[in-house]
Design goal:
The chain is of the alpha/beta class and 365 residues long. It has 9 helices and 15 strands.
């Protein structure tokens, strides 16, 4: 149920930056420590980034696993790939550790599933974790992107809370890198990031039904730099894959960097929500390397993928001020996108309950 902030029909309307507040209290967790921060609240915005995905090698409860008193109450927590070889095989194997679930944590977790494999030296395989409610259901699906100095391990508490509130959460490790690294070697790192995110979308899209998720609308949530790169990826859509090929042919590289696990299907996002992003990260690149800026900046993607809804959340006390997402949001409004910027009473953090409520609203639950 949505918080009583404004009429339901106003959620998702096209508008420039606005603020909505209500009295009350909600739990906000520090993104790095996982500790709850109580704040007089709040937010309104939601988001979604639909990433399509390919079939994955996911661990399953089988006769090879240790017996338990109640096999239905188990957590799979240790899937690993074929090892640390530079170029692992296309179909990774998996080993699993099983621990019992508890009433206090009614979530199954599948850890370290490989979703992208390296094609070039200096590129690594990428893994994700999946958090699922114990109850069977047609759950909405979230794909969660960590920030620039984090990893999927920083998002364990948040991912579990979202799953407890009734959604399938794919929490990914992805290669953020800085701006300098992104445009070195003709943008090799930027191309890798785009391809890794497309692989994550394909994986989530294909795997979601097997975990009780609805693949028709996958919500991608990005925090901090995850919001920056998630907005770029979502706006660019599938056109960017061809644009990278054209750029590579004319500039002598970079070639494709990763191979997705499973068959190739659409890797475009359906919707997006960014929390605590800057979005202007590539602005200086416009003068230094205009062609790479066109491939790498979310501002350069405006006009593409115009049917995708975008939502931007920003804490009122975030050190990265709200003027940063406002610039992108206002340009998107002018271009006719379904987009909103919502300022909530907080800092550089993720408001859990409200994020979950808004994700559910976005997918129509």
């Amino acid at each position: 149920m949505l918080p009583a902030l404004l009429p339901k029909h106003e959620i998702g309307r096209k508008q420039p930056a606005v603020e909505f507040f209500r009295e009350g209290r909600t739990t906000v967790r520090n993104i790095f420590t996982g500790e709850p921060v109580i704040t007089a609240v709040t937010l309104v915005v939601l988001g979604a980034n639909l990433l399509s995905c390919s079939p994955s090698a996911r661990p399953t409860l089988s006769s090879t696993m240790p017996p338990t008193s109640n096999p239905g109450d188990t957590l799979i927590i240790g899937a690993t790939s074929t090892g640390n070889t530079p170029y692992p095989s296309e179909t990774p194997t998996a080993t699993s550790t099983v621990i019992p679930a508890t009433a206090a944590s009614p979530v199954r977790v599948y850890r370290n599933l490989v979703y992208a494999l390296p094609l070039q030296e200096g590129v690594f395989e990428r893994k994700l974790d999946i958090y699922t409610p114990k109850k069977v259901g047609d759950w909405p699906v979230v794909l969660f992107m960590h920030g620039g100095i984090g990893s999927k391990e920083n998002l364990v508490g948040i991912s579990q809370e979202l799953a407890e509130q009734g959604m399938i959460v794919f929490t990914i490790n992805w290669p953020p890198g800085g701006l300098k690294a992104a445009y070195q070697d003709n943008g090799r790192k930027a191309r890798e990031t785009y391809e890794v995110l497309a692989c994550a979308v394909q994986f989530a899209k294909s795997a979601a039904p097997g975990y009780g998720g609805d693949p028709s609308e996958i919500v991608v949530v990005g925090f901090s730099m995850g919001a920056d790169y998630g907005s770029w990826f979502t706006l660019a859509g599938e056109e960017l894959e061809k644009e990278w090929d054209i750029f590579s042919d004319s500039h002598g590289g970079p070639p494709p960097q990763v191979k997705c696990v499973g068959k190739k299907i659409s890797g475009a996002a359906d919707a997006f929500v960014g929390i605590g992003g800057i979005y202007t990260y590539a602005n200086n690149l416009r003068e230094k390397h205009f062609e790479l800026w066109k491939l790498f900046s979310p501002f350069a993607q405006i006009g593409k993928n115009t049917g995708v809804p975008l939502r931007f959340l920003h804490g009122k006390r975030d050190d990265f001020g709200p003027d940063l997402p406002a610039e992108l949001n206002d340009l998107l409004v002018s271009a006719g996108y379904d987009t909103d910027l919502v300022i909530f009473d907080g800092g550089h953090e993720v408001p859990i309950e409200l994020t979950a409520e808004l994700v559910s609203e976005l997918v129509g639950d």
